[in-house]
Amino acid sequence: PYERKWWKEAVAYQIYPMSFCDSNGDGIGDLNGIYSKLDYLKALGVDIVWLSPIYDSPNDDNGYDIRDYRKIHADYGTMEDFDRLLEGVHARGMKLIMDMVLNHTSDEHPWFQAALKDPTSKYKDYYIWRKGKADGTPPNNWQSFFSEPAWNYYPELDEWALHLFSRKQMDLNWENPELREEVYDMLNWWMDKGVDGFRLDVINLISKFEGLPDGEEGFITGIENYVYGPHLHEYLQELNRRVFSLHDSYTVGEGCGLGAATQVSMTLASRKELNTTFCFSHFDTPGHSKYSTYRYDLNYLKDYIMKTQGTQDADNWLTLVFENHDQPRFLSKITREPGEIEPAAKLVALLEMTLCGTTFIYEGQELGMRFVEFKHASEFRDVEAINMYKKLLSEGKTEEEAFRFVAPGTRDQTRAPMQWTSDANGGFTTGTPWLRLNDNFDTVNAADEEKDPDSILNFYRAAISQRKQNKTLVYGDFVPVCPEQKDFFGYTREDADGKYYVEINLSAHELERPVEMNGTLLLGSYGTAEKALRPFEANLYRLR
Ligand code: TEU
Ligand code: CA
């Protein structure tokens, strides 16, 4: 019953520009490096390329602190380089979406600098300012996502300004219609250049509750006062009316700290807000955070998928995502056993490519890039990790304890540079990489996997190819098979065009099939299907 759309069928690929490919030897990934890999992305089967922020920025949060929305970061190249990249993406029949950070700007943005220089200027009210409390403390007890109070004090104004993220990421005041006009003008400027849509950073945070009241003491104190504020739908509908609806655009909102239900409310086609959102609730099992070291029980993922696959209808569409630049490698949460890594990686590939929703792959996921053994806190580059490390030390933890806590969850885990070859620096750069690579690039790299027909890369290509050939895998009805069978995940996908069956062993041990379906094996993570399911075995069959 779905209305077919190009973005519903698309396989999207997230690029973290700083770590993807360096073309000029300065150790930093750049746009011309991305350009040189467009044929690699096309061969993988990518339809949409999502670039993490490439705008001018002091890089306090690696570009999620934008200083100029209309200027390409000098480290990444020029606007001419961008125009050439966009043309190269379109020439290969792919689309390009930009990462837009609209909840906050860098404190070095001209708007914020103007507010500081002249508090009577209109720019002051582009941000969120409050007097402190009588005792000199901040206006409320909110904590930032990065382990600090969420307010900066500016003596020249004797006022505090809000920052939900780093001290250099200042929250914009979306209640100000002039600010909103500036945002719409900027977004249309990019759409008029020919970009095909946006990934919208923490878009659900843009509306804060009246009065900015104190929050419940907790991990991120105050979050209940802004994750889903009173004007959110009003702003999203205005964004859609003023920008997205004027172009054939695709939008995906990052629903930071939201449950699936509220995410759906932002994506109902009838409400004309966003096309899709990201939900991350399956990234860790209950009781675990991204800093936890544990074996992820895939039975939990099965339950999550069975709950969410049925929620699509003509009005709502989901995304499927397992990795991004904020979370450790999902593969390494499933297993770190050398013999299990390949089957587990192929399980994720086959699962992702046979479910309903817009599918997202993060750079390196297609290679089975995995857990990085950081050696020392001095290797961290991620502001979230560095702040967390400092906070743990301030709470009396030893350096070793603080390092051991942060290392598994630092966002540097998935920002370690792309592994292209077994040559020096994994072929990422001829210079000194801005962040160390994983030591295993001598065996885990695109060049070697290209040549190996049984590699994770070639399995991703095959799984994506099956999805493209058989649109039933996108739009067909999802029906679980033997759902009560632990460690087993079976489902069919069916519509008028055909019927497919997927069987997956969610465990690391051999598993008897609970049911036999007679179909044609289209793709198997072990190449063949035998009498019992091997560890993490995943098979796709055509039934008709
Ligand atoms: O992420 C927001 C967000 O949810 C992450 O900060 C996440 O909560 C945290 O890393 C999990 O521990 C977006 C961007 O994806 C992230 O890179 C930025 O740091 C952040 O917004 C601020 O722009
Ligand atoms: Ca470079």
TrEMBL record:
<dbReference type="Pfam" id="PF00128">
    <property type="entry name" value="Alpha-amylase"/>
</dbReference>
<dbReference type="InterPro" id="IPR045857">
    <property type="entry name" value="O16G_dom_2"/>
</dbReference>
<comment type="similarity">
    <text>Belongs to the glycosyl hydrolase 13 family.</text>
</comment>
<dbReference type="InterPro" id="IPR006047">
    <property type="entry name" value="GH13_cat_dom"/>
</dbReference>
<feature type="domain" description="Glycosyl hydrolase family 13 catalytic">
    <location>
        <begin position="14"/>
        <end position="415"/>
    </location>
</feature>
<protein>
    <submittedName>
        <fullName>Alpha-glucosidase</fullName>
    </submittedName>
</protein>
<dbReference type="InterPro" id="IPR017853">
    <property type="entry name" value="GH"/>
</dbReference>
<dbReference type="InterPro" id="IPR013780">
    <property type="entry name" value="Glyco_hydro_b"/>
</dbReference>
